């Protein structure tokens, strides 16, 4: 049997909802993305490296133990990505559109000096296709086991 927790979502006062019988997802005003959740140190450092594709409507949500100045790079990431930084109340604070793959030893880093609680990685072009902008709010639903 699955154990589900609820942290609540009322306007922007809460952000994560445990959803029995549903998959984890991040929802924008016009689109939901089914996400793989990375919150262990291993998954946080591995991310989407070495993956040859990311299906449309899918992504990876990085969940940090607390707000941080999360910086990302594309080393050994084979597909271009949009990266979306979110603060602890689910507001978009930074977007890096179309971060290119990097195969060299030194790769550029992307991020913001503002504190982020989450980073969402999706296929490049997502932010433009769904009119996702800094300042927008999202709803995060994480299925727990």
Walk me through the structure.
- The protein is globular.
- The protein has 145 residues and is mainly beta.
- The protein has a domain at 38-136: Protein of unknown function DUF192 (Jelly Rolls), CATH 2.60.120.1140.
- The chain is built from two helices and ten strands, in the order βββαββββββαβ.
- It has helices at 41-46, 126-129; strands at 16-17, 25-27, 32-38, 58-68, 71-73, 81-86, 92-99, 109-111, 116-123, 139-141.
Low-confidence stretches: 1-21
Which structural class do you get from the secondary structure elements? mainly beta
Query: Helix content range of the residues, please?
Result: under 10%
Backbone CA Rg: 15 Å
Count of beta strands = 10
Q: Tell me, what's the shape?
A: globular
Question: What is the topology?
Answer:
Blueprint: E1 16-17, E2 25-27, E3 32-38, H1 41-46, E4 58-68, E5 71-73, E6 81-86, E7 92-99, E8 109-111, E9 116-123, H2 126-129, E10 139-141
Summarize this structure as a short list of keywords or feature phrases.
two-stranded antiparallel ribbon; Jelly Rolls; 2 helices; 10 strands
């Amino acid at each position: 049997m699955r154990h589900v927790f609820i942290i609540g979502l009322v306007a922007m006062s809460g952000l994560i909802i445990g959803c029995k019988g549903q998959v984890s997802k991040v929802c924008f005003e016009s689109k939901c993305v089914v996400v793989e959740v990375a919150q262990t140190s291993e998954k946080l450092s591995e991310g989407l490296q070495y993956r040859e594709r990311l299906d449309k409507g899918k992504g990876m949500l990085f969940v940090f133990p607390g707000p941080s100045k999360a910086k990302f790079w594309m080393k050994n990431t084979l597909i271009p990505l949009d990266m979306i930084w979110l603060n602890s109340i689910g507001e978009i604070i930074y977007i890096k559109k179309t971060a290119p793959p990097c195969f060299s030893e030194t790769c550029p880093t992307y991020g913001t000096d503002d504190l982020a609680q989450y980073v969402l990685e999706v296929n490049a072009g997502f932010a433009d296709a769904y009119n996702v902008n800094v300042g927008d709010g999202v709803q995060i639903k994480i299925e727990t086991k």
